[in-house]
Queue: 3 jobs
Job 1
Amino acid sequence: MYQQMIFVNLAVDDLDASKKFFTELGYSINARFSDENTASVVISDTIVAMLHTRQRYAEFTKKEIADSGRTSEVLLALSSESREKVDELVEKAVAAGGSVSGETQDQGFMYGRAFDDPDGHTWEIVWMDPSVVEG
């Protein structure tokens, strides 16, 4: 059965620093789709973050590239298997050079926190009670 994937493309200032950051979060780099200008970060079987130097990223668009440290071009949200895993990933991100973004959101059935990676991209990590999701 075909499973649709998402490839999130992001411009980064320092590719080596970004690779280090994401591997410290526990993700792997797919060397087959990486080179000196791009890193393919495997988040799951269906989610891949393609980190590009600004020069490489510019090859894919005619638009001005957002300064993700000053502006928000996208909010990336990843699900998590538990509240504890939400906290664990955000704490890893801060230890690896990221920063907490916004306030913890705790609505009982849903719990979320967010961090900014070293380039300022905001990643939201969210847990939702499976019994509520299933309806």
Job 2
Amino acid sequence: MNLHLFPKENSKASVWSGGLTYEYLIHPKTAHYADRDFAFRISSATIEKVPSEFTQFKGYYRYLVMLDNDLHIDLNKEKKVYEKYEIMEFNSDDEVTSYTKGIDFNWMVSEKISHHKLKIANSNQNCNAQIVILFSLDTTVIKINEKPYDLKPYDLLVIENQKKENILLHFSNECLYGILDF
């Protein structure tokens, strides 16, 4: 089992049409966002322009969570509202127009990967997924098999669990908790 900590301050920024996006992780490491050849990508973006069109990606499923605000959007021309921390799930080639400024968490997963899920966790979790992602929403202590890890707000901790060992997780505060199996 390998653990990788991606602090918010180490994420690299790039421009998208509505603001900035901060990439935490792209998998595999040899993949390039512009080539759209990745299995999954985790990022956080600022939405600074209203309205703004979300970038479309054919062949990807997407999870988006607003970190500081509600989200008012048109999804394929249908009006929708998501509350702060409510998980929005959609196909990345959907037409999404945002009418909200703020900061989001964004996880894009290739449609070739059949098993993935994102939820809010604030209690013990037991899992054996190949990849576990933990995104702190606040200052958080995450215990992994009783060993503590301190995370600042918007830090990302990724567990690679190729042997699919059983992992016991405990959270001191709410986190985004994602699992993925290839």
Job 3
Amino acid sequence: MQPTRSPWVSVDPTPFLSDSGNHYFTSPSGNLYCGILHDGTQLLAGCQALSIVGNLPECDDPMVLSGPMISLVDDGTVGAGCTSEGVYVGEAGKVLGYGERITVGAIRCSSLEDGVTCEDLEKGAKFLASRAAFTQIP
């Protein structure tokens, strides 16, 4: 029996590491900016979009100048909303190609043609960031 091959290519996280100690990447389309951040005690991950996301129309307010963001929250859940900060925009920002995944500690993010997924392998929280929606995956 032939062993099954994973459709994913795991990448070395080192080229994605910024001087601040965080790992940043962009989607191949350039629409998503994502990061795995070290806050001193734990790892957090999230993405921000340049375009409006279907399920967050409130982020399309020119008076607020905010954009959509989704994050793995430290309590093991997922949070989505709007931000005017570049939380997941970093100086490394290398492209994570379709079919590639990056793992830092217990956080794993994967690049798909329909978006980026990030998950906390210890706590079980997982999200999909795409043009259509920023959503928690059960």
